[in-house]
Write a structure and sequence with these properties.
The protein is an alpha/beta fold. 33% of the residues lie in helices and 16% in strands. The chain starts with 5 loop residues before the first strand and ends with a helix.
Length: 201
């Protein structure tokens, strides 16, 4: 998994509340078990018109936000079903962080397993960063995971809290499989000892 240390990038403003996982990646795209290729269908029903053409009014279709790496969103981001395809689609598009006042629990957990940092901040901080995001490429945000702070376009710092274990994993690019592989030598040693002491197993 890709490490997350410090990210400076364009933030797309999405001031909607209750953006659910079906909005992030509609159910018809859940047939794949691959993490790549879903970026083109991110926010599909909002990004595209019924004839398949782009909706020019949707934020990620606007020239200033086509390379956005951060989303600043309304409350309760990622609610709805537990589909892990939602963070897969965000990551494949290029989104590395989402800033909101709150997140649905399962989506929040899935983000950490896929190298995406969900940042929960108070409403006034989100409002300020939303205003920054509305300035497009002229206002880049910085998210410093090491020091647990979001830095606005004017240099204002917004500290955030994160579980130390999750912070460690993101900083080192570790998902659950990566954490297990860190113990590979100990696991192998245990298996050898178990095979010698219980050869009948």
């Amino acid at each position: 998994m890709e490490k997350f240390t410090t990210l400076t990038g364009i933030a797309a403003p999405m001031p909607l509340v209750n953006i659910d996982t079906d909005m992030i990646i509609p159910k018809q795209f859940l047939k794949t078990i691959h993490r790549s290729g879903l970026g083109k269908n991110l926010f599909d029903e909002m990004r595209y018109n019924p004839d398949g053409s782009e909706n020019p009014d949707f934020v990620l279709n606007k020239p200033a936000y086509r390379d956005a790496q951060i989303i600043v969103a309304g409350d309760n981001f990622g609610c709805g079903s537990s589909r892990e395809h939602a963070p897969w689609a965000l990551k494949d598009f290029g989104i590395r962080a989402v800033i909101s006042t709150s997140f649905a629990d399962i989506f929040y957990n899935n983000c950490f397993q896929n190298g995406i940092l969900p940042v929960a901040l108070p409403q006034d901080a989100v409002d300020a960063l939303m205003r920054d995001a509305e300035n497009g490429a002229n206002a880049r945000l910085t998210i410093d995971l090491e020091n647990q702070v979001v830095i606005g376009a004017d240099g204002t710092e917004y500290p955030f809290q994160i579980d130390p274990h999750r912070r460690h994993n993101l900083l080192n690019g570790l998902d659950d499989i990566g954490l297990t592989l860190e113990k590979a030598a100990s696991i192998s040693s245990y298996e050898q000892q178990a095979a010698q002491s219980r050869p009948w197993v």
